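PROTEIN DESIGN WORKSHEET
SECTION A - STRUCTURE
LENGTH: 143
TOKENS:
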């Protein structure tokens, strides 16, 4: 009984080590270079306020060191596989926004990192009719 148990344990250990041994001798690029670089370029901006509306979000962000600008993100972009994602969290780093552009300069998608609590001072409500401000196809940041 002891002998068969020992053989089973050794067989299980060898089976568990097989993937690691195969990886070591595989075709892994150890040079540290990126095989296929991404064509996306992220731009991070500090967000000062987010105003919620039924049609989307108005995001006020810091433009340079002394001025501000805003973008309008339609609510329809916030779908699975859509052009916008919102991440909620807490801490001093929130809120901020990452806008991704392709290498040709065209807009790809946006990630909005916001305070989880809607009672935080960075959240607000947008009142009135926004007109056509949420009918956008792209986000063009001002610097």
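SECTION B - SEQUENCE
RESIDUE ASSIGNMENT:
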């Amino acid at each position: 009984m002891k002998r068969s148990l020992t053989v089973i344990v050794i067989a299980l250990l060898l089976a568990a080590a097989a993937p690691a041994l195969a990886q070591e001798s595989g075709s892994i690029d150890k040079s540290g270079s990126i095989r296929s670089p991404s064509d996306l370029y992220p731009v991070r901006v500090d967000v000062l306020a987010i105003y919620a509306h039924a049609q989307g979000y108005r995001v006020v962000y810091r433009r340079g060191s002394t001025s501000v600008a805003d973008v309008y993100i339609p609510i329809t972009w916030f779908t699975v596989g859509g052009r916008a994602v919102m991440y909620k969290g807490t801490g001093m780093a929130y809120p901020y926004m990452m806008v991704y552009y392709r290498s040709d300069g065209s807009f790809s998608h946006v990630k909005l990192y916001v305070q989880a609590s809607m009672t935080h001072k960075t959240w607000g409500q947008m009142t009135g009719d926004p007109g056509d401000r949420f009918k956008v196809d792209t986000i063009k940041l001002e610097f």
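SECTION C - NOTES
The longest strand covers residues 40-53.
Strands lie at 40-53, 56-63, 67-74, 84-89, 96-102, 107-115, 123-125.
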